[in-house]
C-alpha cells in the first residue's frame, strides 16, 4: 500500500485520540474506463485498497459518508464508475454496498440479488463435475 498513487483518508476521534477508521483508494483503468477503486483484494498486481472502521464506528453512518465522499471524488475527476471488491461470505457488507446502489451484473446479464460485474471471477467447473464458487465479487456503480 505504499504506491504513490494510492490515497488514504484516516478518521480520528479527537476526544479519545483514537483512529476510528480509514479508507484507501486509487484511480485506475478497467476495460478502458477510468474508475475509482476501494476495498480491492490483493491481486496479481499486489494492490490493496480498503475501507476499515472500528467496531464501535460500524453502523453509525460513517461508512456511507466515506463511500459518498469517494463517489464525489470520482465524479469530480469525471470517472465512469466506482468499483470495489467484497467477500461473498460477508453478507452484511454485500447488503451495505447494494443499499448504496452498487451492483454486480453478470456477463450473461442474469440479475440476481447479488449479480456480478463482468470482470468478477466466474465459478470454476472442475473435471469431477464439482463447481467452486469464487470467494469474492466485484461490485460497481456508475458515476457519470
Q: Which keywords apply here?
A:
144 residues; alpha+beta; Aminopeptidase; 6-stranded mixed sheet; two-stranded antiparallel ribbon; 2 helices; 8 strands; 17% helix
Write the layout of secondary structure elements.
Layout: E1 7-13, E2 18-30, E3 33-38, E4 51-53, H1 62-76, E5 81-87, H2 91-99, E6 124-125, E7 131-132, E8 136-142
Give an account of the 3D structure.
The longest helix has 15 residues, at 62-76. A hairpin with a 4-residue loop joins strand 1 and strand 2. Mean pLDDT is 76; it is low at 40-47 and 107-115. This protein has 144 residues and is α+β, with helices and mostly antiparallel strands. The protein is globular, with a radius of gyration of 16 Å. The chain has a single domain, classed as Aminopeptidase (3-Layer(aba) Sandwich). The protein starts with 6 loop residues before the first strand and ends with a strand. The strands form two sheets. Strands 1, 2, 3, 4, 5 and 8 form a six-stranded mixed beta sheet that branches. 17% of the residues lie in helices and 33% in strands. The chain is built from two helices and eight strands. It has helices at residues 62-76, 91-99; strands at residues 7-13, 18-30, 33-38, 51-53, 81-87, 124-125, 131-132, 136-142.
Number of strands: 8
Which CATH architecture is right? 3-Layer(aba) Sandwich
Radius of gyration: 16 Å
Number of domains: 1
Order of helices and strands: EEEEHEHEEE
Amino acid at each position: 500500500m505504499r504506491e504513490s498513487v494510492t490515497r488514504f483518508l484516516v478518521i480520528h476521534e479527537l476526544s479519545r485520540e483514537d483512529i476510528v477508521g480509514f479508507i484507501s483508494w486509487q484511480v485506475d483503468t478497467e476495460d478502458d474506463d477510468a474508475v475509482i477503486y476501494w476495498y480491492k483484494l490483493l491481486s496479481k498486481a499486489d494492490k490493496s485498497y480498503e475501507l476499515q472502521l472500528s467496531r464501535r464506528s460500524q453502523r453509525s453512518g460513517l461508512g456511507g459518508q466515506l463511500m459518498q465522499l469517494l463517489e464525489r471524488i470520482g465524479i469530480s475527476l469525471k470517472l465512469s464508475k466506482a468499483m470495489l471488491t467484497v467477500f461473498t461470505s460477508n453478507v452484511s457488507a454485500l447488503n451495505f454496498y447494494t443499499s448504496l446502489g452498487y451492483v454486480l451484473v453478470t456477463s450473461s446479464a442474469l440479475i440476481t440479488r447479488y449479480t456480478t460485474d463482468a470482470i468478477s471471477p466466474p465459478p470454476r467447473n472442475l473435471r469431477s463435475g464439482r463447481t467452486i464458487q469464487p470467494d469474492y465479487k466485484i461490485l460497481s456503480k456508475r458515476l457519470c
